[in-house]
Amino acid sequence: IARYGLDDLLVISYLKGGFRCEVEGSTQGVQAREIAFFDLARPFNIESEQVDNLALHVSRRRLAQLMPASTPLHGLVLRHGAIRELLLSQMSTCHALSAQITTAESAAFSDALLQLVAGGLKHAQYQTAGLSPPPSPASLTDMTAFIEAHLARPDLGPDELTRSFGLSRAT
Length: 171
Known about the structure:
21% strand, 5 helices, 7 strands, single chain, 4-stranded antiparallel β-sheet, alpha+beta
């Protein structure tokens, strides 16, 4: 399949109306402005009353640099959150500017969209599993700024830092 260019990912959002999709025998609804991810090497079916969508074709090879190849992606839906809005906005902006994007600029646009797609996929996995994403790692700069801002607090100590930054005492 990869030889024919189908070993990639489709990122799609219907701007109005939404759609129903069947993936591996399971049917789910995708509402307007939610973002669905489909593996183009695997079968899926989309049904909709109207078509007003944004779609993005993503290279699996390039995505593999940001996410493990074993990550299940087919049929994931990013239903809510700031990353969804940012990805939708970026897709819409790229569409609106497509005639103006130069060859020299295309790599930067592509890289930015790829990062957002990878972030969206990670959040879609957490949403599907009903989990919250893990906290981002705390930087020494963040911790120093926090300590300086809270020096007067009598309860400031290792326990407060571990709670505030999602760390263990051993970290």
